[in-house]
């Protein structure tokens, strides 16, 4: 077993190239991704989802990063250029945008493996010892150095980052690993209806997070082989992993806190309900995701806006927020905010009451409005006196989307159809 000292891990991360797969639509978020890819969706009051894997890379000491984009990528590319374009290329530190550009044929990215395969020339020019392939649409904090060190210590060809989850949650949603006592993967099922349980842990299974470490030479060999297979869907879960687990060293890395053994915060936020719930978690007194940790900051594009402002203190219009997160540039003008999360430049007006809601950048809520359990997309102007989230049948008639758990989504296009 190799000693996993800080210096050892630091040397490994310097020899690693990270490729973030950020081209997915996120169709289960419905109209929230009509004009942006899922990794570009806002989260946590000032961030985008893609900021979390990118920040994990930087905090882990990985400074050579590519972001593969495809679906409606304009806002994502603009965000990366503004927030992540300050590295010095001459010192081999960079965040590159890698749009789907038919580099190896007539197809755009057709699968996760193909997205890496089409950028092999870029990977070869960097010549890393290890390649870290990351999903760009999950919210979590993780030191990738520990996973890379374990990969090297195991003599692995590929290492898959996994988390323990309930079988009911994983069924049909995640790739599920079966590993022996050493951590070596002996079976893999892509989104099975009945996942294999972890031995000794009934009701739990080992789900893939979509994060992988490869020894570079091995990755190139497998991608070339897969690329030549006309019957392949060119996907890591569907094709690459099942084809290599018998003859090659594939290991599972448990996503756990190295000190406590507990599973850290991780959210998929792939549905409107899970997105709303994850944002609501952040306004609790002690949220599971600590955004205030100076040792592991989450980086993003910081818009130049003034501080949040709360005005009026009359009995019928008091500007106030309780158990809420309010970002810079917001003006709470004689309205009441509770258990809600407001992104930058939100303006709420007199006598409006907002509860358990997520308001994205640039929203304007006029006088005498009432919102409850609502997601308001960026740039929306809520008309005077409108109530949303109280009568779901009325919300549906207006063209708003109401989820199974009673969350109402409002977008600019929906509001425009009311006029």
Can you summarize this structure?
With 419 residues, this protein is of the alpha/beta class. It is built from twelve helices and 31 strands.
What does this structure look like?
- This is Glucose-1-phosphate adenylyltransferase.
- The chain has 419 residues and is α/β, with parallel strands linked by helices.
- 24% of the residues lie in helices and 27% in strands.
- β2 (42-43) and β3 form a beta hairpin.
Q: Could you list some keywords that capture this structure?
A:
single chain, 419 residues, alpha/beta, Spore Coat Polysaccharide Biosynthesis Protein SpsA, Chain A, UDP N-Acetylglucosamine Acyltransferase, domain 1, 9-stranded mixed β-sheet, 12 helices, globular
